[in-house]
Write a structure and sequence with these properties.
The chain is an alpha/beta fold. The protein has one domain: Rossmann fold (3-Layer(aba) Sandwich), CATH 3.40.50.1820. The protein contains 8 helices and 8 strands, in the order H-H-E-H-E-H-E-H-E-H-E-E-E-E-H-H. The strands form 2 sheets. It has a 6-stranded parallel sheet, covered by helices on one side. A two-stranded antiparallel ribbon has the order 6-7. Strand 1, helix 3 and strand 2 form a beta-alpha-beta unit. It is globular and about 50 Å long. It starts with a helix and ends in a 37-residue tail after the last helix.
């Protein structure tokens, strides 16, 4: 059978979210897994992670171990930012996942604006030590050129001080901050949201790149294809060895607290942006 590029890319996509499943490499570990938090993007829904959810269930995760918070307006993408009511469902899910996790640690997977929204909670509340693996899919961690450069040409909340304009106070507060024990990004150079006018980089670095990441995977597909065409692949046979790179020791229930230890960040959070609200593509 001919090896068509599109088939190759699809198969690669179906391997990449092995990064979610650090603990199912052996039968002994399978009984005790990290809880997983799946955070959708701007104006999205938890159902956008259905492929990942179904695959996790097929591989032994229970519904109790998978949390999919729903956040933000579904009808006004430009009305959403990273402050206030958008934060609450995501923070609650992270804290609850830590409490439920057999290992006491969690895996966090975000798509698009869900990447930065989850990251803000982890940084602001000192949860990085509770995160075994953080995976950012098509995030705008270094900002969106379509949002302009803060504080100029910032017309919406999504692009404001607590949004994704280049050099916004939000992004400055996340720069260089750890998000977990292992961090991975999945990105594309033809991402129609992260890339603007064919430009995907900020300061010479792809905007989806995460600070201190252990690896980054690039796939030639669109912004939403990076999420919907991706599912969890088998563990130990992964050709890039991601399972071994991610694997962490099993931690007994009594070794870690059952509730998250909420810690304040040493950096104060910028005040909520009060910019006008207009139209902006969903991210």
């Amino acid at each position: 059978m001919p090896w068509f590029p599109e088939r190759r890319d699809t198969r690669l996509l179906r391997l990449l979210l092995i990064l979610l499943v650090a603990t199912f490499a052996s039968a002994a570990q399978a009984a005790c897994r990290d809880a997983v938090v799946l955070v959708h993007g701007n104006a999205g829904t938890p159902a956008q992670f259905d492929n990942t959810y179904v695959e996790l269930r097929a591989r032994g995760w229970t519904d109790f171990e998978i949390l999919r918070p729903s956040w933000g307006s579904k009808t006004c993408a430009a009305c959403n930012d990273h402050s206030g009511s958008e934060e609450t469902p995501v923070l609650d899910a992270l804290v609850e996942a830590i409490a439920r996790s057999c290992t006491g640690r969690i895996d966090v997977i975000g798509h698009s604006m869900g990447v930065t929204l989850a990251a803000k909670q982890i940084v602001a509340y000192g949860l990085a030590i509770d995160v075994a693996t953080f995976v950012g899919i098509a995030g705008a961690y270094r900002g969106l050129w379509s949002c302009g450069t803060y504080p100029w040409n910032v017309a919406t909340s999504t692009c404001g001080a607590q949004g994704l304009s280049i050099n916004s106070p939000l992004l400055a507060s996340l720069a260089g901050r750890p998000l977990g024990m292992k961090t991975y990004s999945i990105k594309s150079w033809i991402d129609q949201i992260v890339c603007y006018g064919g430009v995907c980089s900020v300061g010479g670095v792809h905007s989806s790149t995460l600070p201190g990441e252990n690896a980054s995977h690039t796939i030639a597909t669109g912004h939403f294809g990076l999420l919907t065409d991706t599912a969890v692949a088998a563990g130990r046979s992964d050709p890039v060895g991601a399972a071994r790179a991610m694997r962490c020791p099993r931690i007994a229930r009594h070794d870690r607290p059952r509730k998250a230890r909420i810690r304040s960040s040493s950096e104060s959070s910028p005040s909520r942006n009060a910019t006008s609200r207009g139209a902006l593509p969903s991210t």
